[in-house]
Amino acid sequence: MGKTILEMIDIKKSFSGIYALSGINFSLEMGEVHALLGENGAGKSTLIKVLGGIYKPDSGTIKINGQEVEINGVSDAQEKGIGIIHQEIVLVPYLTVAQNLFLGREIKTKFGTVDMRETNRRAGEMLANLGVNIHPDTLVESLTIAQQQMVEIVKAVSFDGRIIVMDEPTSSLSNDEVEQLFGIIERLKAKQVSIIYISHRMEELFRISDRVTIIRDGAYVGTKKTSETNANELVAMMVGRELESFYARDYNDLGHAETALEVKNLTCEGVFSDISFRVRKGEILGFAGLVGAGRSEIMECIFGARKYQSGTILLNGKEVRFTTPIQAIKAGIGLVPEDRKKQGLVLGNTVGFNLTLASIDSYINGIAISDRKCQEVIDYYKEKLHIKAVADRVELVEAGSLSGGNQQKIVLGKWLAIKPDVLILDEPTRGVDVNAKFEIYSVINELAKAGIAVIMVSSELPEIINMCDNVCVIKAGKMTGMLGREELDQERIMQYAAGGEE
Ligand SMILES: Nc1ncnc2c1ncn2[C@@H]1O[C@H](COP(=O)(O)OP(=O)(O)OP(=O)(O)O)[C@@H](O)[C@H]1O
Ligand SMILES: [Mg+2]
């Protein structure tokens, strides 16, 4: 490593008079992977948007190759060699991969029409160059999120990007896909491309980054060489204190607990088959397995969001078969889906509105909605989940202006506030920072203590192991194991989830 390619010095940026960035320093060397770490709302995406020409900073200096520059808009940033893969995917879904790669710089035939053959050929080359195995004339909407992300990377690099920013690239990738992405990062490094990498997954930072810069509440905290630090130190820098014990779980005696939900031989052809389990009041039942094993689909069937061909579902002893989620919610089942970005946040409305949206029926006093009850619920969840914005009263802020992780917390809070009999959580801590994780575990624990039956689908084995009473392991649509709390360890779960034939 050596030459500094990018310097950002004392960058400040405010929204409505309040600082989201209050003086950030960041430097990047050629061929370096530099991680940017900070809690939800710390200012990571905002800093990146300043670099990408989306926001104009209030003050501060940006230097590229030692030259002071001003970045005027997105295409100016591209021309300066900066390529950004944002937290939200911005490809056009109804165009092909090749069309997306050449959007705005279409290759023309001599008759002035778009030369699709040449577009596809060049796109194919670009994909192959980075070892991405996707056909150029595939429609983007038919790609998985991971594949879309790969296409975004290919696109960013193809503008002759010397600085590539990845804002939480792995939050929805499976393990294999993460490995593929890391392969691409290695290739880019070898080409002396520099990478800014944002992720809440500590183990990734340790695998691929050379240095880590930590920011907290919009302020610069420090920069460390990855090889000279450890997770505890980084977390302490990030949250400003040492975290106590991470998992809070008071186990209930389930010996006499009533069964809240029982599923018998549930089958959804081509997706999963013959799934049977029960979850009791006060129990947390985990669902482990690889991404794509069919766990989310099982939950969707229970919730009335997907059709199934056979099997029986009993809720509090009574057979049910929901054909829409509304029926399931009315009967007392809640599901917080995996893809919370798509999940009904009214972005133009306030945080408070969104938090109470789904549970509003329970705040009715006689005929009117009790503002006091609403406010209590809002206060509880904004406290509990650390929902943060650059404003004093978060509940009055537009949900759309919150950081990615904070938006996820609102969706989670909205569902937790319903307090259903059975609560299904699909990857509840994806995309949220360590502090919020801790708080989410404590809220889940409290719900279980109050007698709610909780199902937790998670790919994070530590949270499965430390939070669940029992764990059902799914492999390729089949149940391969049901493990009790004493039997839970990573190797055993992985063996059931991915191992050979038993
Ligand atoms: N357009 C905007 N208007 C008002 N406030 C904003 C705007 N964009 C960001 N903010 C605020 O700036 C702060 C930093 O947000 P940012 O998105 O940079 O956080 P982040 O570090 O990327 O968090 P996460 O890990 O959750 O993605 C947040 O408090 C957010 O509410
Ligand atoms: Mg962000």
Separate helix tally: 16
Give the full name of the CATH homologous superfamily of the largest domain: P-loop containing nucleotide triphosphate hydrolases
CATH second-level architecture of the largest domain: 3-Layer(aba) Sandwich
Shape: globular
Q: Compute the gyration radius: what is it? A: 24 Å
Architecture overview:
There is one protein chain. This protein has helices at residues 44-51, 74-79, 97-101, 116-129, 145-158, 175-190, 202-208, 231-239, 295-302, 325-331, 351-356, 371-384, 404-416, 434-449, 461-467, 490-498; strands at 4-15, 18-29, 33-37, 59-64, 67-69, 82-85, 163-167, 194-198, 211-216, 219-225, 259-268, 272-280, 284-289, 310-315, 318-320, 333-336, 364-365, 368-369, 422-426, 453-457, 470-475, 478-484. The chain has three domains: 4-239, P-loop containing nucleotide triphosphate hydrolases (Rossmann fold), CATH 3.40.50.300; 258-332 and 453-502, 3-Layer(aba) Sandwich (Rossmann fold), CATH 3.40.50; 336-419, no CATH class. The relative contact order is 0.11. It starts with a strand and ends with a helix. The strands form five sheets. It has a six-stranded mixed beta sheet with strand order 6-7-8-3-9-10, sandwiched between helices. A six-stranded mixed beta sheet has the order 16-19-20-13-21-22, with helices on both faces. A four-stranded antiparallel beta sheet has the order 2-1-4-5, with helices on one face. 32% of the residues lie in helices and 26% in strands. A hairpin with a 2-residue loop joins strand 14 (310-315) and strand 15. It has 16 helices and 22 strands. By secondary structure, the protein is an alpha/beta fold. It binds adenosine-5'-triphosphate and magnesium ion. The site of magnesium ion (MG) has 6 residues, from helix 1. Magnesium ion (MG) binds at residues 44-45, 87, 167, 403-404. This is D-xylose ABC transporter ATP-binding protein. Keywords: ATP-binding, Cell membrane, Membrane, Nucleotide-binding, Repeat, Sugar transport, Translocase, Transport. Pfam families: ABC_tran. It is a peripheral membrane protein. Residues 6-242, 249-501 form the ABC transporter domain.
